[in-house]
Design a protein that fits this description.
Shape of chain A: globular
Protein name (chains A, B, C): Membrane protein
Strand content of chain A: under 5%
Number of domains of chain A: 1
Membrane topology (chains A, B, C): Multi-pass membrane protein
Oligomer: homotrimer
Largest interface: A-B, 24 and 21 residues
Main location (chains A, B, C): membrane
Subcellular location (chains A, B, C): Cell membrane
Pfam family, one (chains A, B, C): Gly_transporter
Largest sheet of chain A: none
Chain lengths: 203, 203, 203
C-alpha cells in the first residue's frame, strides 16, 4: 500500500510536469522535438538532481524506461489536445503547482528512506519539486521565473516542515502526503494570486 | 580487439572535441588559459554528465590523467598551427561533427555494458555526444547553437537506433561502430548544409 | 590533530564563503530568503561538484547538517552587522579570497585521500575553490566575474602545485596547508590589485 501510493504520486507528478513542460515549450513556439525535450527535462530534472546528490545512481529515469514512455505519451497527447484548452497560462500554472506538491513529497520521503537529517530531507523535497521547473525556465530563457523562484522554494520548505510534523505526531503516512500535496498546491495559488513576496533588505 | 577499438574511438573523439573547443575559444578571442579550459570542457563534458547519471564514479577523466594530457597537447598544437588553417569555421564544424559521431558510439556502448534499456542507451549516447558541445557553446555564449541543438540530438538518436539495429542483426560490433560514426558525421553535414529543420507547432 | 586541522580549515572556508555570498546577494538587493540561498550555494557549491565528480555521495553537506546551520548563522549575523561594515566591496573580496585558499586546500587533500593522480588533485582543489564563487556570480548574473574567473583558477592551480611540492619534500602537512592558504590569499590580492592578466592569442 505504502509503495503503491508512492508510485501513484510519482506517476501523477511526472504527468503534471510533462504537461507543464509541454505548455511552456509550446508558448515559446519550439518545434516538435524541442517540446518533447523540455517536457522530459521538466519532468525528470528535479529527481535527477536529487538522485545525483544522494548518490542513488543510475538516476531514477535511467532504471525505469516506463517513466520516459509516460512523458512521451503525455507530451504527445497534450500537443494533440492543445486546441481544446483555452486558458493556456492558467492551465500551465495549475499543473506546475500540482507537480510541485507531488514531487516535493516524493523527495521528502526518499530523504527519509535514506535516513538523512530532517532538515536535509526538507531541502531534498524542495530540490525535487523545484529543479524541474527551474531547468525548464532556464532552458526556455523565460524571465518572470526569477521573481517566482523564491516563493516556489518557500512553499516547498513549508510543506516539508508540515510533513515531518505530521509524521512526528503519528499521522498516517498516506494521509500526511495528501495533506502536504494539497497544502503546497493551494498555498502556491494563493501566493501567486495575491502577489505575496518577502521583504527586501535595505542597505 | 574489442577493447582496443573502443579505446581508439574514445581517443579520436577526445582529440576531435579538443580541436573543436580550441577553435571555438580562439574565435571568441579568449586568452591562452581560457582556450585550454574550453578545450577540456568540450572534450570531457559529455562523458562527465554520462558518468554522473549512471554512477560510474569517479568520472572517467579523473581516473585517467592521460586523457587530460592528450587534450592539453592537442590544444597547444592546434593553437600553434592555427595560422596554417584558413577555413576556421569549416574546420571547426567538421571536427565537431566527427567528435559527435565518435562520442555517441562511446556512450551507446557504455550504456549497453551497464545493461541499461536500449532506449536509455540511445539517450546516453546522445548525451555523451552532445553535452560537450552544448557546454562549450553555453560557456562561450554563442547564440547560433540554439538553432542547431535539436538537429545535433536528432542525428545522435538516429545513429543510436541504427547501432542497436545492426547489433540486433548480429553485425560485427566494430563494423557497426564504424557505420554509425560515418552515418552521424555525414548526416549532420547534410542537415546543416541543406538547413533542414523540424516543423514548428502552430498554436 | 590532522583531522582537526582539516575540520577547522573546512569550517573557516564555509564561513568565509557564506559571508562573501551574503555580501554579494545584499549588493544585488535580494530579499532575505534569496540572500540565504546565495550564501548557501556559495559555501557548498565547490564541495558539491567535487563530491559528485569523485563519487563521494551523498555530498558532504547532506551528511552534516551542522554545515547548514553554520551557513545560516553566519549569513544572519552578516546581515545583522552589515551597517557596521563600510567598505562592502573590499570586505567581500577579502573573504572570497580567503575562502578560495581554504577550500582549494580541502579539495587537494580530499583528492590525495582518494588516491587520485597529483594533476587530478590540483584540478579537484581548483574546482572546490572556484565553483562556489562561479555559481554565486552566475546566479546573481554579475558580469565582472568573467574577467576574473581565469585568474581565480590559475591562482588555485599554482597553490595546488606548491602544496604537492611541499608534501613531496616532507614538509609537515599542517604547515604546508597554512603556507598554501596564505599563498593563494596573498597572490589573488596582488593579481587583482595590479590587474594582472594572461596574454590574449592573436588570430
Amino acid at each position: 500500500m505504502f509503495s503503491s501510493t508512492s508510485a501513484i504520486i510519482e506517476l501523477l507528478g511526472t504527468i503534471s510536469f510533462a504537461i507543464s513542460g509541454t505548455f511552456s515549450a509550446m508558448q515559446r513556439r519550439l518545434d516538435a522535438f524541442g517540446v518533447l525535450i523540455i517536457a522530459f527535462v521538466t519532468s525528470v530534472g528535479g529527481g535527477t538532481i536529487r538522485d545525483l546528490l544522494i548518490g542513488d545512481l543510475p538516476v531514477a529515469w535511467m532504471r525505469d524506461v516506463q517513466v520516459c514512455l509516460v512523458i512521451l505519451a503525455t507530451s504527445v497527447l497534450t500537443i494533440f489536445f492543445k486546441t481544446h484548452i483555452k486558458k493556456l497560462k492558467v492551465t500551465l500554472f495549475l499543473f506546475d503547482s500540482l507537480g510541485l506538491g507531488l514531487f516535493t513529497v516524493v523527495g521528502l520521503q526518499k530523504g527519509l528512506n535514506f535516513g538523512l537529517n530532517p532538515g536535509i530531507c526538507i531541502a531534498l523535497g524542495t530540490i525535487t519539486g523545484c529543479f524541474g521547473g527551474i531547468t525548464r525556465d532556464t532552458l526556455l530563457n523565460t524571465i518572470p521565473l526569477i521573481f517566482q523562484k523564491e516563493i516556489y522554494a518557500t512553499v516547498c520548505i513549508l510543506g516539508g516542515a508540515v510533513y515531518l510534523l505530521l509524521l512526528h505526531f503519528q499521522v498516517n503516512t498516506d494521509v500526511s502526503k495528501f495533506i502536504v500535496i494539497a497544502l503546497i498546491f493551494v498555498t502556491r495559488i494563493i501566493v501567486v494570486q495575491h502577489k505575496l513576496s518577502f521583504p527586501r533588505i535595505n542597505y
